[in-house]
């Protein structure tokens, strides 16, 4: 919950004219910031306590279409308000926007002022509380990948997203020379995120022309999710101010690498000082607790894949030989694996889930990984031996669901997630997944037109 700006500092900055706008933001189901731009003085005087928004914001699709069939919000219920409660601990300056601060809000029931159960931030907070009750802190880090284009969003739209000019013409994975061409955006992104209280470790070229990866320092799960969504929003805003465009689509081009969001996760003691996964005498130096946590994530991976891959396009990324996983297994430092053990032999030992794409909602993804890890601990699961070799070529390993339809079916049947998240919450997101499939199934794609307009 750590921002870099106290409420007292905000009041002072408002009074001396340094800040004139405060963004009060919730996180929607798609992992986007939604909310209001407040005149800063009004926020300081009144709105810092609470404001309100239409509850359709957590019952709409990515096109902002109010989706029928949700229990939580509907036309028959009148699409009333929910409370947006600023978490003042998340206050931060936004250097890339003039005289602007931002705060993340919790979403509360309008009548009871309790957390709205299906709010993404509330879902993660519930799982963080489950960790806390056991004396654990979950540390997470999500690595975001994206493509940077020498295009604006307007020019890309006019080209129908075809033949786009990437910031570099060829793959520059780890290459310093070629990524220097991209520094106009990337240097600003690193430095201005740091100034916004989001500590950046590094950026690098990735395995696609103009593709980037940016790494944020690990943090407690809720802090990391907040950092993740602010970074994504800010990256687009910074790029647009430079006349560029950024895409976090899992797979924007069939012939190029997809965009992942690998998620590193481990448990530490309640005071944050003792790593609970490190045991130098254990197999792989991974403690019994760590092995059970990992075993739970492996056991339930099919059930929570939707939380890591929520769109039709997400499943286009799972292709052999592309550094995206296709199989559910774990390995020691093996990038063909769905789960990879990192930091073996050190206090930083952790599991890396490589299934998620850059289009995921981090609150939902982290919550699912925590729920599965805790299930592994409760069931005292035994971790299988690590896979060795090329997982793409291993025919007997369990596969990641191949389509949104497959992932939705396993999500709907998950007793573990129903128990961990709540039946109504699970039903809410199953409905979301089914709507996304329904919308796709009734649309005509460019591929269909190209293939069949003349030849059928």
UniProtKB/TrEMBL annotation:
<dbReference type="Pfam" id="PF00120">
    <property type="entry name" value="Gln-synt_C"/>
</dbReference>
<feature type="domain" description="GS catalytic">
    <location>
        <begin position="120"/>
        <end position="456"/>
    </location>
</feature>
<keyword id="KW-0535">Nitrogen fixation</keyword>
<keyword id="KW-0067">ATP-binding</keyword>
<dbReference type="InterPro" id="IPR008146">
    <property type="entry name" value="Gln_synth_cat_dom"/>
</dbReference>
<keyword id="KW-0547">Nucleotide-binding</keyword>
<feature type="domain" description="GS beta-grasp">
    <location>
        <begin position="17"/>
        <end position="115"/>
    </location>
</feature>
<keyword id="KW-0436">Ligase</keyword>
<dbReference type="InterPro" id="IPR036651">
    <property type="entry name" value="Gln_synt_N_sf"/>
</dbReference>
<dbReference type="InterPro" id="IPR014746">
    <property type="entry name" value="Gln_synth/guanido_kin_cat_dom"/>
</dbReference>
<comment type="similarity">
    <text>Belongs to the glutamine synthetase family.</text>
</comment>
<protein>
    <submittedName>
        <fullName>Glutamine synthetase family protein</fullName>
    </submittedName>
</protein>
<dbReference type="InterPro" id="IPR008147">
    <property type="entry name" value="Gln_synt_N"/>
</dbReference>
<comment type="function">
    <text>Catalyzes the ATP-dependent biosynthesis of glutamine from glutamate and ammonia.</text>
</comment>
């Amino acid at each position: 919950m750590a921002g870099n700006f106290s409420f007292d500092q905000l009041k002072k900055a408002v009074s001396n004219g340094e800040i004139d706008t405060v963004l009060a933001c919730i996180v929607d189901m798609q992992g986007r910031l939604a909310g209001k731009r407040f005149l800063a003085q009004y926020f300081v005087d009144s709105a810092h306590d609470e404001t309100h928004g239409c509850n359709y914001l957590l019952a709409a699709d990515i096109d902002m279409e109010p989706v029928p069939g949700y229990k939580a919000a509907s036309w028959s219920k009148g699409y009333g308000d929910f409370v947006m409660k600023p978490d003042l601990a998340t206050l931060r300056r936004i250097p890339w926007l003039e005289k602007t601060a931002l705060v993340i809000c919790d979403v509360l029931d309008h009548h009871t002022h309790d957390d709205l159960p299906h709010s993404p931030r509330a879902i993660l907070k519930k799982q963080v509380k489950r960790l806390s009750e056991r004396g654990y802190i979950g540390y997470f880090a999500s690595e975001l990948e994206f493509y940077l284009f020498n295009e604006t969003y307007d020019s890309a739209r006019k080209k129908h997203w075809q033949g786009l000019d990437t910031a570099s013409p060829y793959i520059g994975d780890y290459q310093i020379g070629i990524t220097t061409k991209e520094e106009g955006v990337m240097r600003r992104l690193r430095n201005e995120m740091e100034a916004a209280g989001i500590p950046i470790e590094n950026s690098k070229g990735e395995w696609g022309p103009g593709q980037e990866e940016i790494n944020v320092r690990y943090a407690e799960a809720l802090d990391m999710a907040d950092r993740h969504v602010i970074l994504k929003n800010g990256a687009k805003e910074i790029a647009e101010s430079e006349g560029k465009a950024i895409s976090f689509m899992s797979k924007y081009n069939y012939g190029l690498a997809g965009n992942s969001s690998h998620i590193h996760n481990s448990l530490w003691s309640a005071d944050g000082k003792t790593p609970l996964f490190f045991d130098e005498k254990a197999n792989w130096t991974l403690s019994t607790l760590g092995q059970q946590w990992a075993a739970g994530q492996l056991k339930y991976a099919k059930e929570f894949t939707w939380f890591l891959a929520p769109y039709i396009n997400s499943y286009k990324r799972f292709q052999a030989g592309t550094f995206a996983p296709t199989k559910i297994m774990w390995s020691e430092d093996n990038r063909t694996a769905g789960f990879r053990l990192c930091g073996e032999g050190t206090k930083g030992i952790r599991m890396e889930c490589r299934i998620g794409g850059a289009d995921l909602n981090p609150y939902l993804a982290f919550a699912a990984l925590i729920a599965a890890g805790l299930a592994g601990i409760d069931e005292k699961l035994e971790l299988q031996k690590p896979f060795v070799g090329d997982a793409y070529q291993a025919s007997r390993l369990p596969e990641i669901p191949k389509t949104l339809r497959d992932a939705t079916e396993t999500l709907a049947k998950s007793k573990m997630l129903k128990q961990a998240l709540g039946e109504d919450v699970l039903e809410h997101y199953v409905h979301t997944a089914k709507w996304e499939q329904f919308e796709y199934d009734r649309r005509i794609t460019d591929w269909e037109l190209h293939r069949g307009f003349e030849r059928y």
